[in-house]
Amino acid sequence: MTDAANTDRWIRWLNTLQLVIAGALIMAPTVWMVLSSFKPSFEVTAYPPTLMFSPTLENYVELTKTTPFLSYALNSLVVTVGSTALGLVFGIPAAFAVSWTRISWPAILTLAARMAPGTLFLLPWYVMFRQIGMIGSYTALILSHAVITLPIVIWVLLPSFDAIPRSVFEAAQVDGCSVTRILWRIAMPLVASGIAVSAILAFVFSWNYFLFALVLSNGDTKTLIAAAFNFIGEGSTQWGALMAAATLIALPPLVLAALVQRWLVSGLTLGAVKG
User: Fold this and answer.
1) Which stretch of DSSP H or E encloses residue 168?
2) What pairs with residue 237 in β-bridges?
3) What is the pTM of this model?
4) Which of 59, 188, 218, 250 could in theory staple to 136 by disulfide, Cβ–Cβ 3.0 to 4.6 A?
5) Coil, helix or strand for 116?
6) What are the sequence ranges of the domains in the chain?
7) What is the architecture, at CATH level 2, of domain 56-269?
8) How does pLDDT run across 49-89, given as a tens digit for each residue?
């Protein structure tokens, strides 16, 4: 075996080892959370940690008995689907317009809004919604979460629209297509995987967002991520129930990503290399 072949083999082994270590570091907290959700309450915070234990569902039973978990899950679903749909409805045309006109400042403005801390928007949102009596409504939560989903959709789709050859649009214009028809009939089918990726990312970010749901919701519209905060008290924390809640909260985005993994990977690479 030549030196070059030996070098390539060692590089492959090192790359594999690096990926295994990175995967273990990333997944360790998630695995620990899931395992802790099946531990008896007194073993969750035991020191040293117990690796061998008898699995139990008492944390999940306590979670469903002490909280209206299904109601909170429905609230989260309504808010997340609504804000994701709102982000797609406005984000797809916005990304296409930015790509079409090559005017980037609107996209940069939305990115600046996304990078700003949530507390910057929270007080104006709260005052405005309180004045019109919308605190605790689904509408308030969906509109506030659109601040998160809209920039994600725009910036995920921008490279996808930019990757479409300009000649495709010019040929459509020669055939008499309007800009709206070009977006609907030509551009959107070509960036379908990018739309799927933006929808998934918007769903995940909205589902996991805590601040707006905590302040702008009430008992009837509280989301899962905000309801999990109830298990943390001043004197004690119900770690077992909290781990069970965190596991169930993390489940929908993980299942969604697993189901659409093929489109997710292709969408993330779309537009990365332009011919």
Assistant:
1) helix 166-174
2) 232
3) 0.80
4) 218
5) coil
6) 56-269
7) Orthogonal Bundle (1.10)
8) 777 778 888 888 888 887 888 888 899 999 999 999 999 99
